[in-house]
Write a structure and sequence with these properties.
The complex is a heterodimer of chains A (259) and B (294). Chain A has 259 residues and is α/β, with parallel strands linked by helices. Helices cover 36% and strands 25% of the residues of chain A. The longest helix of chain A has 17 residues. Chain B is built from eleven helices and four strands; from the N terminus they run ααααβββααααβααα. The chains are: A alpha/beta (259), B mainly alpha (294). At the A-B interface, α2, β6, α3 and α6 of A face α6 and α7 of B.
Chain lengths: 259, 294
């Protein structure tokens, strides 16, 4: 507990109409950390991020950004406070150019010189975006659009960046490339990150700490390395089968330790 | 020579249609709602300016009344979005459409109550003056309409492509969710788009009233402008103007060259063109569609 918590979530609950998607989640992201939240489809990962970044309002619980409660605030105020959400599925502005997309990331800022410096920083991490600066963003490939979404998020100069499934729809090779850049941004630019992923192998590889989410609850929390070594995570998220019976088949009804 | 005059007056009419269509498209792009009161916004804009400058009313200087009318209409647009539409957030498009139709009726009767239902004309410094080039006689009002439209669309183009607010308006219209994520205050941006379209409507109204009389039902012109917007491809700003110009030109030309006994064709022509465009290019002439990549 040396570094301070940039983000602290306590007993968060949120609903889609009558359906409870987040059932009392508490977690913490400390400065400089790269924390991952793993989970299958429908575990509530995206909802959790949306609730944290203010796109959805929670029913109960608190979200603290650097000690200040921000739950229920409008997203534009939350971005200005230093939290940016890079949404799932590369939500870019298709008809704007790449450069205009990048510039929109800095909408809440007005310090011209620093914005220009950050633009250079983003282009140094994603040189392909610099080549395509004047092109409409909708004409980029999927991987380039994901890079653009991350680069645009960086332009808000976030104290913490929420990344929602950056590997979605990308080839394994591109996924590796993107995660490599994410790791470099974390170590070189000291961007604190919270990463939500289905692809547990890559996520645990880059993360320092991890949470496992299932049906709206956090069921495990530990150092990323410890999680990667845990039997349950290996069995259910990494697809490494553990005990095979005499007939050489996997038990198809394995009980999870948290159930 | 007769022909040149016909073209110029057609272009001038087309500019007015185009500017109203521009208002339609601005709001449609930003909020995905169609403002059926756009024509009535234009009419109110004209009456506000008229109320400020005509000797019968306040008698202000014309050049002071124009920007004032634009500001008042911008405020009206902003307030309508802020006070009414924002509370309809999440309702179906149909209810918003009905709401704007109702607003049109309210504006029409309000204008009739305040300024009477009789046609009145706007007193402009250039009313009734002509320019003569050899045998061609052009009304200064018509030239003014064309010049003002060119200047206005030019400045709108610069605004949308060069300023941060303009680009943010484009961004919010292309991907509302992403704009939210980037900290763009989408709701305020939408109100500002309504304000902008109110100001554009005021200009359209002032131009319209400067070349003829205006009465509270002039707002029904909006239907023709709606056709213009659809011809241009709903959602394209240059398309709206081109659509307006096409309709503006087709009307006088079809009336002039129609065979005897078919003079009424001028009234049908805009909609016939709309039909033809929709059959052969359903997205409009300048359709702007971009499929999202998965």
């Amino acid at each position: 507990m040396s570094a301070t918590a940039v983000l602290r979530v306590d007993n968060l609950e949120s609903y889609y109409g009558p359906i409870q998607a987040i059932r009392g989640v508490s977690l913490e992201v400390r400065e400089g950390q790269l924390v991952t939240v793993l989970g299958a489809n429908g575990a509530g990962k995206t909802t959790l991020l949306k609730t944290i970044s203010g796109v959805m309002d929670p029913e109960k619980g608190t979200v603290k950004l650097e000690g200040t409660e921000i739950q229920g605030n409008e997203p534009d105020r939350i971005v200005a406070r230093g939290m940016v959400h890079v949404p799932e599925g590369r939500e870019i502005f298709p008809l704007l150019t790449v450069a205009e997309n990048i510039a929109m990331g800095a909408y809440t800022r007005s310090d011209k010189a620093a914005i220009n410096a950050d633009e250079e920083m983003v282009y140094s991490y994603f040189p392909i975006l610099k080549e395509r600066m004047t092109q409409a963003a909708g004409t980029l490939s999927g991987g380039q659009q994901q890079m653009l979404a991350i680069g645009r998020g960086l332009m808000a100069k976030p104290h913490i960046m929420l990344l929602d499934e950056p590997s979605l729809g990308l080839s394994p090779l591109l996924t590796e490339e993107i995660f490599d850049i994410i790791r470099r941004l974390n170590t070189e630019q000291h961007v604190t990150m919270m990463l939500v992923e289905q692809n547990a192998a890559v996520a645990l590889d880059v993360a320092t700490y991890g949470y496992v989410m299932e049906l709206g609850r956090i069921v495990m929390a530990d150092e990323a390395a410890t999680l990667a070594a845990s039997k349950d995570v290996q069995e259910f998220y990494l697809g490494i089968s553990q005990d095979e019976n005499q007939r050489g088949q996997r038990r198809w009804k394995q009980r999870k330790t948290w159930r | 020579m007769d022909f040149v005059q016909l073209i110029v007056s057609g272009l001038a009419n087309g500019c007015v249609y185009g500017l109203i269509a521009l208002g339609f498209v601005l709001i449609y792009k930003a909020t995905e709602a169609v403002n059926f009161a756009q024509g009535d916004f234009m009419m109110i804009g004209a009456f506000v300016c008229l109320g400020l400058t005509n000797a019968d009313f306040m008698g202000l200087n014309f050049w002071l009344a124009v920007p004032l009318a634009m500001v008042i209409m911008a405020a009206l647009g902003y307030l309508f979005d802020w006070g009414v539409l924002r509370h309809m957030f999440g309702q179906s498009q149909v209810s918003i459409v009905i709401l704007t139709i109702a607003l049109g009726f309210i504006l029409r009767f309000a204008a009739g109550t305040i300024w009477s239902h009789e046609p009145v004309s706007l007193e402009t410094p250039f009313a009734g003056q002509d320019l003569r080039f050899g045998g061609v006689v052009l009304g200064i009002d018509e030239i003014a309409i064309i010049v003002v439209t060119v200047v206005l669309t030019g400045s709108l183009f610069v605004f949308f492509s060069k300023t941060k607010l303009g680009v943010a308006m484009q961004a919010a219209s292309q991907n509302q969710l992403a704009a939210y994520y980037m900290g763009i205050p989408v709701k305020r941006i939408q109100s500002l788009v309504w304000a902008l379209s109110g100001a554009v409507a005021a200009v359209a109204g002032i131009l319209f009233a400067s070349k003829g009389a205006i009465d509270p039902s002039s707002g029904l012109l909006g239907i023709k402008a709606f056709a213009a917007a659809a011809i241009g491809g709903f959602g394209s700003l240059p398309g709206a103007l081109v659509g307006g110009l096409i309709i503006g030109l087709v009307e006088p030309l079809s009336a002039r060259f129609a065979p005897d006994g078919f003079a009424g064709i001028a009234r049908i022509a805009p909609y016939a063109i709309l039909l033809i465009v929709l059959i052969f290019r359903p997205g409009g002439i300048f359709s702007q569609t971009q499929k999202k990549k998965v």
